[in-house]
Amino acid sequence: MHAAHDSWPEPAELVRDSIGLSDFASWTDWSLARVGFRPSNCLALVDVCRDELMWPFEEEMARTWGRPFSVGALGAMVLAGRTGLAAALSHVPGEDRRQRFVVLAFPHIGIDADGVAGRVQRRGHTRASTACGALAALREQLLEGGPRPGAPRPGGPDDIEQDYLRERVGGLVAPGPVPSLTALTDLARRAAVEDIARYIDLARGSEPVDVAYISGMVLHLADGQDRVSGVTAEVCIDDDTIPLPT
Ligand SMILES: [Zn+2]
Questions:
Q1: The model's pTM
Q2: DSSP 97-122
Q3: Engineering a disulfide at 42: which of 100, 150, 180, 232 sits with its beta carbon 3.0 to 4.6 angstroms away?
Q4: Ligand 1: distance of its center to the CA of 54 in Å?
Protein backbone atom coordinates (compact mmCIF):
# COMPACT_ATOMS: atom_id res chain seq x y z
CA MET A 1 0.00 0.00 0.00
CA HIS A 2 1.34 3.45 -0.89
CA ALA A 3 0.35 5.74 1.93
CA ALA A 4 2.33 8.89 1.18
CA HIS A 5 1.60 10.33 -2.23
CA ASP A 6 5.03 11.98 -2.47
CA SER A 7 6.50 8.47 -2.72
CA TRP A 8 4.14 7.36 -5.47
CA PRO A 9 6.03 5.66 -8.34
CA GLU A 10 6.93 7.27 -11.63
CA PRO A 11 4.86 6.34 -14.73
CA ALA A 12 7.68 4.06 -16.00
CA GLU A 13 7.58 2.06 -12.76
CA LEU A 14 3.80 1.72 -12.98
CA VAL A 15 4.18 0.33 -16.50
CA ARG A 16 6.99 -2.01 -15.48
CA ASP A 17 4.94 -3.45 -12.59
CA SER A 18 1.67 -3.75 -14.53
CA ILE A 19 -0.24 -6.79 -15.75
CA GLY A 20 -2.67 -7.29 -18.63
CA LEU A 21 -6.44 -7.15 -18.11
CA SER A 22 -7.11 -10.82 -18.67
CA ASP A 23 -4.25 -11.95 -16.38
CA PHE A 24 -5.58 -9.56 -13.74
CA ALA A 25 -9.11 -10.94 -14.08
CA SER A 26 -7.77 -14.50 -13.72
CA TRP A 27 -5.86 -13.44 -10.62
CA THR A 28 -8.99 -11.99 -8.98
CA ASP A 29 -10.86 -15.21 -9.75
CA TRP A 30 -8.11 -17.44 -8.38
CA SER A 31 -7.25 -15.46 -5.26
CA LEU A 32 -10.86 -14.82 -4.22
CA ALA A 33 -11.96 -18.42 -4.78
CA ARG A 34 -9.53 -19.39 -2.02
CA VAL A 35 -11.49 -17.23 0.46
CA GLY A 36 -14.94 -18.38 -0.63
CA PHE A 37 -15.80 -15.66 -3.16
CA ARG A 38 -17.20 -17.06 -6.40
CA PRO A 39 -19.19 -15.46 -9.21
CA SER A 40 -22.21 -17.50 -8.07
CA ASN A 41 -22.24 -15.99 -4.56
CA CYS A 42 -20.97 -12.42 -5.13
CA LEU A 43 -22.07 -9.18 -6.68
CA ALA A 44 -19.30 -7.12 -8.29
CA LEU A 45 -19.31 -3.40 -7.51
CA VAL A 46 -17.36 -1.78 -10.29
CA ASP A 47 -16.08 1.70 -9.64
CA VAL A 48 -14.48 3.27 -12.70
CA CYS A 49 -14.60 6.67 -14.40
CA ARG A 50 -17.33 7.29 -16.98
CA ASP A 51 -14.74 7.48 -19.78
CA GLU A 52 -15.45 5.03 -22.63
CA LEU A 53 -11.78 4.03 -22.44
CA MET A 54 -12.75 2.01 -19.35
CA TRP A 55 -15.01 -0.31 -21.32
CA PRO A 56 -12.38 -3.06 -21.95
CA PHE A 57 -11.71 -3.22 -18.19
CA GLU A 58 -15.42 -3.32 -17.37
CA GLU A 59 -15.99 -6.00 -20.01
CA GLU A 60 -13.14 -8.15 -18.68
CA MET A 61 -14.41 -7.88 -15.10
CA ALA A 62 -17.96 -8.75 -16.22
CA ARG A 63 -16.62 -11.81 -18.05
CA THR A 64 -15.19 -13.07 -14.76
CA TRP A 65 -17.65 -11.78 -12.15
CA GLY A 66 -20.90 -11.38 -14.05
CA ARG A 67 -22.90 -8.26 -14.74
CA PRO A 68 -21.73 -5.63 -12.22
CA PHE A 69 -23.50 -2.99 -10.15
CA SER A 70 -21.89 0.21 -11.38
CA VAL A 71 -20.97 2.85 -8.79
CA GLY A 72 -18.45 5.06 -10.62
CA ALA A 73 -18.65 8.73 -11.54
CA LEU A 74 -16.00 11.12 -12.96
CA GLY A 75 -12.56 10.26 -11.60
CA ALA A 76 -14.00 6.97 -10.21
CA MET A 77 -15.64 8.89 -7.37
CA VAL A 78 -18.55 7.11 -5.74
CA LEU A 79 -21.77 9.10 -5.42
CA ALA A 80 -24.10 6.14 -5.03
CA GLY A 81 -24.17 6.63 -1.27
CA ARG A 82 -25.93 4.53 1.33
CA THR A 83 -29.09 4.14 -0.77
CA GLY A 84 -27.14 2.94 -3.79
CA LEU A 85 -25.25 0.39 -1.74
CA ALA A 86 -28.45 -0.76 -0.02
CA ALA A 87 -29.90 -1.43 -3.48
CA ALA A 88 -26.77 -3.36 -4.48
CA LEU A 89 -26.94 -5.37 -1.28
CA SER A 90 -30.45 -6.56 -2.13
CA HIS A 91 -29.12 -7.87 -5.49
CA VAL A 92 -26.39 -10.16 -4.14
CA PRO A 93 -26.92 -13.74 -5.27
CA GLY A 94 -27.45 -15.61 -2.01
CA GLU A 95 -26.21 -19.09 -2.83
CA ASP A 96 -25.21 -19.84 0.78
CA ARG A 97 -27.08 -17.06 2.61
CA ARG A 98 -23.94 -14.97 3.06
CA GLN A 99 -23.77 -11.65 1.28
CA ARG A 100 -20.58 -10.90 -0.61
CA PHE A 101 -19.37 -7.93 -2.63
CA VAL A 102 -16.32 -7.83 -4.84
CA VAL A 103 -15.34 -4.16 -4.99
CA LEU A 104 -13.20 -3.24 -8.01
CA ALA A 105 -12.15 0.42 -7.69
CA PHE A 106 -9.90 1.57 -10.51
CA PRO A 107 -9.30 5.17 -11.51
CA HIS A 108 -7.36 5.44 -14.77
CA ILE A 109 -4.44 7.21 -16.38
CA GLY A 110 -2.99 7.46 -19.89
CA ILE A 111 0.77 7.03 -20.31
CA ASP A 112 2.18 7.94 -23.74
CA ALA A 113 5.18 6.51 -25.62
CA ASP A 114 7.48 9.06 -23.94
CA GLY A 115 6.27 8.00 -20.49
CA VAL A 116 4.24 11.18 -19.94
CA ALA A 117 1.33 10.58 -17.57
CA GLY A 118 -2.11 11.83 -18.55
CA ARG A 119 -1.80 11.52 -22.33
CA VAL A 120 -3.72 9.06 -24.45
CA GLN A 121 -4.37 8.57 -28.15
CA ARG A 122 -8.11 8.14 -28.75
CA ARG A 123 -9.78 6.54 -31.74
CA GLY A 124 -10.70 9.16 -34.35
CA HIS A 125 -8.44 11.86 -32.92
CA THR A 126 -5.25 13.06 -34.54
CA ARG A 127 -3.91 14.63 -31.35
CA ALA A 128 -3.39 13.07 -27.96
CA SER A 129 -5.99 13.91 -25.32
CA THR A 130 -6.20 13.61 -21.55
CA ALA A 131 -6.96 10.65 -19.27
CA CYS A 132 -8.24 10.92 -16.69
CA GLY A 133 -9.69 14.25 -17.86
CA ALA A 134 -11.47 14.84 -14.55
CA LEU A 135 -8.34 14.20 -12.45
CA ALA A 136 -6.23 16.32 -14.81
CA ALA A 137 -8.82 19.11 -14.42
CA LEU A 138 -8.60 18.73 -10.65
CA ARG A 139 -4.80 19.06 -10.87
CA GLU A 140 -5.21 22.25 -12.92
CA GLN A 141 -7.61 23.57 -10.28
CA LEU A 142 -5.07 22.81 -7.55
CA LEU A 143 -2.24 24.45 -9.54
CA GLU A 144 -4.35 27.58 -10.01
CA GLY A 145 -4.90 27.60 -6.25
CA GLY A 146 -8.66 27.54 -6.82
CA PRO A 147 -11.23 27.19 -4.08
CA ARG A 148 -10.02 24.85 -1.35
CA PRO A 149 -12.08 21.97 -0.03
CA GLY A 150 -14.86 23.25 2.18
CA ALA A 151 -15.43 26.35 0.04
CA PRO A 152 -18.84 26.65 -1.68
CA ARG A 153 -19.09 24.37 -4.69
CA PRO A 154 -18.24 26.52 -7.71
CA GLY A 155 -20.29 24.49 -10.19
CA GLY A 156 -23.52 24.67 -8.20
CA PRO A 157 -25.98 22.00 -9.37
CA ASP A 158 -24.35 21.93 -12.82
CA ASP A 159 -21.04 20.30 -11.96
CA ILE A 160 -21.72 18.03 -9.00
CA GLU A 161 -19.32 15.22 -9.87
CA GLN A 162 -16.28 17.41 -10.53
CA ASP A 163 -17.04 19.46 -7.43
CA TYR A 164 -17.19 16.30 -5.34
CA LEU A 165 -13.89 15.12 -6.84
CA ARG A 166 -12.28 18.44 -5.94
CA GLU A 167 -13.67 18.40 -2.43
CA ARG A 168 -12.94 14.74 -1.69
CA VAL A 169 -9.57 14.18 -3.36
CA GLY A 170 -8.44 17.80 -2.97
CA GLY A 171 -9.13 17.34 0.74
CA LEU A 172 -6.53 14.54 0.90
CA VAL A 173 -3.77 16.65 -0.65
CA ALA A 174 -1.14 17.64 1.89
CA PRO A 175 -0.01 21.28 2.02
CA GLY A 176 2.95 22.02 -0.27
CA PRO A 177 3.57 21.24 -3.92
CA VAL A 178 0.64 19.96 -5.97
CA PRO A 179 0.97 16.16 -6.36
CA SER A 180 1.70 14.54 -9.71
CA LEU A 181 -1.17 13.10 -11.73
CA THR A 182 -0.14 9.55 -10.76
CA ALA A 183 -0.21 10.53 -7.06
CA LEU A 184 -3.64 12.20 -7.47
CA THR A 185 -4.90 9.06 -9.19
CA ASP A 186 -3.84 7.01 -6.18
CA LEU A 187 -5.55 9.48 -3.83
CA ALA A 188 -8.73 9.06 -5.90
CA ARG A 189 -8.39 5.29 -5.48
CA ARG A 190 -8.02 5.67 -1.72
CA ALA A 191 -11.00 8.03 -1.43
CA ALA A 192 -13.18 5.71 -3.51
CA VAL A 193 -12.38 2.65 -1.39
CA GLU A 194 -13.00 4.56 1.84
CA ASP A 195 -16.32 5.91 0.54
CA ILE A 196 -17.53 2.49 -0.64
CA ALA A 197 -16.56 0.91 2.70
CA ARG A 198 -18.46 3.61 4.59
CA TYR A 199 -21.58 3.27 2.41
CA ILE A 200 -21.54 -0.52 2.79
CA ASP A 201 -21.32 -0.16 6.56
CA LEU A 202 -24.25 2.27 6.58
CA ALA A 203 -26.31 0.14 4.20
CA ARG A 204 -25.86 -3.20 5.88
CA GLY A 205 -27.02 -2.25 9.38
CA SER A 206 -26.40 -5.26 11.60
CA GLU A 207 -26.28 -7.78 8.72
CA PRO A 208 -22.89 -9.35 8.03
CA VAL A 209 -21.48 -8.65 4.58
CA ASP A 210 -18.20 -10.07 3.32
CA VAL A 211 -16.32 -7.67 1.09
CA ALA A 212 -13.26 -8.05 -1.12
CA TYR A 213 -11.68 -4.66 -1.78
CA ILE A 214 -9.51 -4.71 -4.90
CA SER A 215 -8.20 -1.40 -6.12
CA GLY A 216 -5.45 0.04 -8.25
CA MET A 217 -5.25 1.96 -11.49
CA VAL A 218 -5.85 1.16 -15.15
CA LEU A 219 -3.09 2.34 -17.49
CA HIS A 220 -3.92 3.20 -21.11
CA LEU A 221 -0.65 2.67 -22.98
CA ALA A 222 0.62 4.04 -26.28
CA ASP A 223 0.22 0.67 -28.04
CA GLY A 224 -3.53 0.80 -27.38
CA GLN A 225 -3.30 -1.81 -24.63
CA ASP A 226 -4.74 -1.36 -21.15
CA ARG A 227 -2.93 -2.74 -18.12
CA VAL A 228 -3.50 -2.76 -14.38
CA SER A 229 -0.97 -1.48 -11.84
CA GLY A 230 -0.55 -0.51 -8.17
CA VAL A 231 -3.01 -3.15 -6.99
CA THR A 232 -4.04 -3.33 -3.33
CA ALA A 233 -6.31 -6.15 -2.20
CA GLU A 234 -7.88 -7.28 1.05
CA VAL A 235 -10.88 -9.26 2.14
CA CYS A 236 -13.08 -8.38 5.12
CA ILE A 237 -14.91 -11.41 6.52
CA ASP A 238 -16.80 -10.88 9.77
CA ASP A 239 -14.41 -8.69 11.75
CA ASP A 240 -11.23 -10.03 10.14
CA THR A 241 -9.32 -8.24 7.42
CA ILE A 242 -7.10 -10.51 5.36
CA PRO A 243 -4.60 -8.95 2.96
CA LEU A 244 -4.40 -10.76 -0.38
CA PRO A 245 -0.91 -11.19 -1.85
CA THR A 246 -0.67 -9.23 -5.10
ZN1 LIG B 1 -11.61 9.63 -16.38
A1: 0.93
A2: S-EEEEEEE--EEEE-TT--BTEEPP
A3: 100
A4: 8
